[in-house]
Amino acid sequence: MNSLFSDHVAALQPYVPGEQARLPNLLKLNTNENPWGPSLRVLEAMRAAISDDLRLYPDHQALGLRRAIARRHDMDVDQVFVGNGSDEILAHVFSAFFLRSGRPLWLPDISYGFYPTWCRLYGVPAHPMALADDFSVQVADYVREVEVEPCGILLANPNAPTGLALGLDDIARIAATRPDSTVVIDEAYVDFGAESAASLIADFRNLLVVHTLSKSRSLAGLRVGYALGQPDLIAGLVRIKDSFNSYPLDRVALAGAQAAIEDEAWFERTCQALIAAREQLALDLQALGFECLPSKANFIFAFHPHHRAADIAAGLRDQGILVRHFSTPRIDRFLRITVGTPEQCARLCKALGVVLAR
Predict the structure, then answer these.
(1) Interatomic CA distance for residues 73 and 34, integer angstroms
(2) pTM, entire model
């Protein structure tokens, strides 16, 4: 390590994203991108934003976008926070709510791999809670009596990489039981069949819900996310943002994101198309001998009882298809497969037939 680095840099273990390969005729089903492109209204709004006004700073309050999000969720604008992707917002969450006298952060032992990275970066003690044998969140673990209250609870819902979702009654029970802990629900995949905890915010001052436009709005390349909560929670995030970067979203991103939020017809149509493709893909995978968890996300978590997941992933890669394999204990036999268009899913299943026949 460079001797000029800060003291903590050597100990960091950065998050490793899915492979971004450059292969001919690549079918990329490893990073949960949406196979349907963004709304045409988004592209038109972004083109219009590319003007001489780019010499000016963007609106640091992002009022137009926040008002559009507030209208969609029937909230006030001071209940909405926006940032440079949900990952940036979650990083601000760690800084704003989880640094509380060394109190632990409760989170599932199998979930989004960036959560432990932020724990290490910010020095937040992680307290992983084991998922059940069926990979569901054991709600009883989060509502039990303890001597030291957690600084917060962080749940991806639907969870990644499993695709399983908690119901609103369970989330409300957790938030009610832990009033002195910030309960953060990361809803990156919620639009593909789960229930949003946004409807619970009016009842819980400690509940924060985080969304991204990368998945259901097909804007992974734009980097826009938002959080919903009661105004005092949002004010805490604003304090962190304005101590870090007052202008996280540029003019083009603000224009595109607002158009995406406002094009409800495109959003509904593409979400339903993806859900239909997911259900068909699950049936096709089962016909090939896979066992699939019931997903509410835009991916399927599946394993084959007679083939190693790493071997299947390698065989698919040889055919120009990427899926995600995790070497983590308990889930190393699984593949996380992003749902593509019907044509892409058919190509995947044809390639799987070849791999499994070897």
Answers:
(1) 22
(2) 0.97
